[in-house]
């Protein structure tokens, strides 16, 4: 049976601002990427998200991003490799503290937003992110965009990685995600999203925004927790995966 992990970016509420539907999504997924307070989340939300993940036996991942609440961490920032290294270490430390009090550990790391996208394209940024993760804990799994510089950096640094694909995002011909600024970047139709992930998992291929088929490796599937249709996507993925003989199983 084909196996694949199902992850979701969660813990992105902040203070009085409620974002996403974590309580409904967490019981359905196998891995949660928890915001670490820079692009979203706060100390209370981090604590509650870790506690809820433990209750549902969901693997906890750190989701470090740029310190940009207004832009939700999705705006590119001119940073040095040293700054990237430090911001990743800082956020891993914050989340690990909450994991400790709930008698669990960080299982994986997945960068967020612009940090993720910049690392996917720039080997210098990728190396800074990956080196920070390895220095913090070389037993952590690293989650990065399939066929990207993040994956190549993990190979160079001998860090175990998992290739990530997206249910709710369109792809360029070079395997990068289509910029959110472009028409068609976000997939809002549930059937389209599910059909895309089934093709990626079963055929290791994806149709790009230009109508071309490219190879892709799918170890884990992401649904963005802040997406309008996140819960619908997750529920329908689970339903159709059962029909297709695809088992949802946590990353190891």
Task: Describe it.
The chain has helices spanning 22-25, 43-55, 81-101, 113-121, 123-136, 149-157, 190-203, 230-244, and strands spanning 2-10, 31-35, 59-63, 108-109, 141-145, 161-166, 205-207, 213-215, 220-224, 246-248. The chain is α/β, with parallel strands linked by helices. It is globular. It starts with a strand and ends with a strand. GO terms for molecular function: 5-oxoprolinase (ATP-hydrolyzing) activity. Catalyzes the cleavage of 5-oxoproline to form L-glutamate coupled to the hydrolysis of ATP to ADP and inorganic phosphate.
Q: Brief description of this entry?
A:
It catalyses: 5-oxo-L-proline + ATP + 2 H2O = L-glutamate + ADP + phosphate + H(+). The protein contains eight helices and ten strands.
Looking at this protein, list some descriptive labels.
252 residues, two-stranded antiparallel ribbon, seven-stranded parallel β-barrel, alpha/beta
Mean pLDDT rating: 96
Strand order of the largest sheet: 1-2-3-4-5-6-9
Structural class: alpha/beta
Kindly estimate the percentage of residues that lie in beta strands according to DSSP.
15-25%
Rg is 17 Å
Helical fraction equals 25-40%
Please summarize the sheet with the most strands: 7 strands, parallel, barrel
Distance between the termini: 16 Å
- Overall geometric form: globular
Low-confidence runs: none
Please count the beta strands (DSSP E, at least 2 residues each).
10
Count of discrete alpha- or pi-helical segments spanning 4 or more residues = 8
Give, in order, the helices and strands.
EHEHEHEHHEHEHEEEHE
Subunit structure: Forms a complex composed of PxpA, PxpB and PxpC.
GO molecular function, one term: 5-oxoprolinase (ATP-hydrolyzing) activity
EC number: 3.5.2.9
Family: Belongs to the LamB/PxpA family.
